[in-house]
Amino acid sequence: MALPLPFLNSISRKKRAQMIAVDLGSRTTKAVLFERRGEILALTRYALLDAPIFDKKISPELLGDHLKSVAEALGSTTKFISVAVGLEDAMVRQIELPQIPLDEMRQILKVNHKNYLQQDLPNHVFDCYIIPPRTLSPNEKSAAGGAPKLKVLAAAAKQQLVADFLRATQLAGLSAECMLPGLIGPINTFEQALPEVFAKETLALVDIGFKHTVVCILDRGELALTRVVNIGGDKLTAGLAESMGISYAEAEGIKVGMAPEVESALQMQVIPLGREIRASLDFFEHQQDRPVQQVYMSGASARSEMILQMLHSELLLECKTWNPTGFLQLALPGQQAVEIDHIGSQLTVAIGAALAAF
Most CB contacts within 10 A, which of 17, 160, 207, 256? Predict the structure, then answer.
């Protein structure tokens, strides 16, 4: 389900042997180095670096220095890079369009984005991704009638953002190959990691980021709903620190660990997140008359068994983590090979950005 913005997407012309993929998070940049080995994709290195400035606009020069540091941390010799940008930088909406060529869809959005995206977006660039329709049952076909419209993911990003990113990659000595909204990353990865579940079940993918949590409901291989909740790991940690009178760093360590004495304080922070996720599930179930069967969690906070248990209690559904690297050949150096099971859930978006490039 890769959705690269077209002016950065040169992949269709030439397959790359290696690719750097970067998830530009609000606080931590997550990066992976992929290598193509015949039909197999190998993860050869990953890196987690502090974002240079996570509450201000980053200049192309500063971002260029940061991307150069990322490439060095990966020990990479390739120049090709794919990047997932944050929720503040790229808008994604699901819309319906007639069965027309992709170029015409982009043009429609360019001249009529206010109607389709409910926002006036001057100085933006637009792209579309046609969601592959699932196979309809005979009853569904007869109910649909006529020529069905296509379900399309529409993305918009500021022209200046794209120009700044291109400039930054040039300053870093890299070649920009692909750019996609971070929201798409977990979907790309999940489709490869658990193809049977992706194709056959109705489920929620929940990615807990630093500032936001993204909820995507997948219905038998089709993206049915996306929602961004303004509660992330930062809010959980800050609330826990305040309620317990401890430092942010102490609260972060306790949150991921399983100290029972913090359970009630942590629960007060997790309950609002659980209610927001539940509201998203209820909306889908009411609209589609189909139950969501399972919830799959990713992100740093998903490493906490206690948080998963609390969300399970709130949602009345099993909340489980999943392995975003399970379909990859792991060719990691010493310590990284040991730590990948612990770190993996944080790399979900970056892996999805790599898949968009491959």
Answer: 207
What would the CATH number be for the domain defined by 195-321? Answer: 3.30.420.40
Mean pLDDT of 28-42: 95
Delimit the domains of the chain by residue range.
Answer: 195-321
pTM of the complete model: 0.89
The pLDDT tens digits of the residues spanning 39-54 come to: 999 999 999 999 886 5
Q: How many Å apart are CA 160 and CA 158, to the nearest integer?
A: 5
Contact predicate 351/324, CB 8 Å: yes
Per-residue pLDDT, 128: 86
Task: Check: CB of residue 352 under 8 Å from CB of residue 186.
Answer: yes
Q: How confident is the model at residue 149 (pLDDT cuts 50, 70, 90)?
A: confident
* Residue 220 backbone class (left: φ over 0; alpha: ψ -120 to 50; beta: rest): left
**Pairing between strand 124-130 and 90-97?**
unpaired
One-letter identity of residue 209: G
- Spatial separation of the C-alpha atoms in residues 292 and 312, rounded to whole Å: 13
**Count of residues for the chain?**
358
Higher pLDDT, 41 or 153: 41
| DSSP β-bridge partners for residue 213 | 208, 229
